[in-house]
């Protein structure tokens, strides 16, 4: 069985943390899973967000999993998040996609939905 963890909630939402918790549990159990960040969840990949020292950093927690972290390119660009390649293409002066995350098209989400046995959206 494979699971697609579709994260659509903003990083400030408890749902975004539940998505991380599920991914961590699946990884501990050595179960096959994929994640995809879409809609407001793309904000987790913004390297310019500041988190106080006394709070957990959702971006860093995802990075610790050392898994592929695909982010919808259109949703990200629409929310001011870009990688170096898209910054050049769209003439944006800076890029701010956090390390370990990658911008991908919605075709990747379609493929993940097609190839997964179960989909859990947060």
From TrEMBL:
InterPro entries: DsrEFH-like, Sulphur_relay_DsrE/F-like, Sulphur_relay_TusD/DsrE. Keywords: Cytoplasm, Transferase. GO terms for molecular function: transferase activity. Coiled coil: none annotated. Pfam families: DsrE. It is found in: Cytoplasm. Signal peptide: none annotated. Its EC number is 2.8.1.-. Belongs to the DsrE/TusD family. This is tRNA 2-thiouridine synthesizing protein D.
């Amino acid at each position: 069985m494979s699971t697609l963890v579709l994260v659509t909630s903003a990083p400030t939402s408890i749902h975004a943390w539940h998505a991380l918790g599920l991914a961590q549990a699946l990884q501990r159990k050595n179960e096959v899973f994929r994640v995809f960040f879409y809609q407001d969840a793309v904000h987790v990949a913004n390297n310019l967000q500041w988190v106080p020292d006394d709070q957990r950093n959702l971006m860093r927690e995802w990075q610790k999993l050392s898994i592929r972290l695909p982010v919808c390119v259109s949703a990200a660009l629409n929310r001011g998040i870009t990688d170096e390649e898209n910054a050049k293409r769209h003439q944006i002066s800076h890029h701010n996609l956090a390390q370990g995350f990658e911008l991908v098209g919605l075709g990747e989400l379609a493929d993940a939905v097609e190839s997964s046995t179960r989909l859990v959206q947060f």
